[in-house]
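New here. Invent one.

***
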Amino acid sequence: MELIDGKKISAEIKLEIAKEVEEIVSKGGKRPHLAAILVGNDGASETYVNSKVKSCEEVGFASTLLRFNENILETELLKSIEKLNNDSNIDGYIVQLPLPKHINENKIIQAIAPEKDVDGFHPINVGRLVIGLPSFVSATPAGIMELLKRYNINTQGKHCVVLGRSNIVGKPMSILMSQKQKYANSTVTLCHSQTENLKEITKQADILIAALGIPEYVTADMVKDGATVIDVGITRVKSETTKSGWKLKGDVKFDEVAPKCSYITPVPGGVGPMTIVSLMKNTLLSAKGEIY
């Protein structure tokens, strides 16, 4: 069993991005600029956005954080998005989700200019991904593809089972794994809450990608010997063994599943670090004009 070290790979990619940024700047080019919109004071969102700002510093990007009260009107938020769309200094930006309930997330996502949508959530980017055109790919699936590539995991013709059908992970992951390229070309089964005989399906998987958000859902009897297991889940659960009183758990029961695997991602330190570094890669692509 080999552990897929997302922390190590993300650090390597950050160095690669930083080097490229310095080359651009040294030749008189513009420093890439990522902006983030944060509405309200959600603890998890605060943590994510702060780590994104820190990553911008590490790779040499300029960054802007726009904070708004949770009571902001949808119309006011849309005006701020329009300003970012028209600001030539901003290469890409994200609107941190979730948003307060009185704001329509789909309306907000669709208001983002596709060429600045470095989260890859806009329907135009999703559509381009489906038909194989250059697009911004949502960060978590893009990070997983990078891990498969960097660990040289054979995916050609393999059976890939994706657990979860979210627009952010499950659906784009199923599309990416079925594409005609070296670290894809898999036969993909997308499972969800209504899937019958789930255990029989997951036991057939050469590559199992768990993105359900249910801690330790995947157990050893659901995984075949020699499988590659990618654990996307990250849930805070109460713990008496940690100082904070909390522990992070993935969707996979790691201790019992890991011995059966050829490769497995840990939680934390697996997919998580790759999500943020993929956002940095998308911003660099935007700054270089390589997608649009």
User: Anything to note?
Assistant: The chain has a mean pLDDT of 96. The chain has ten helices and eleven strands.
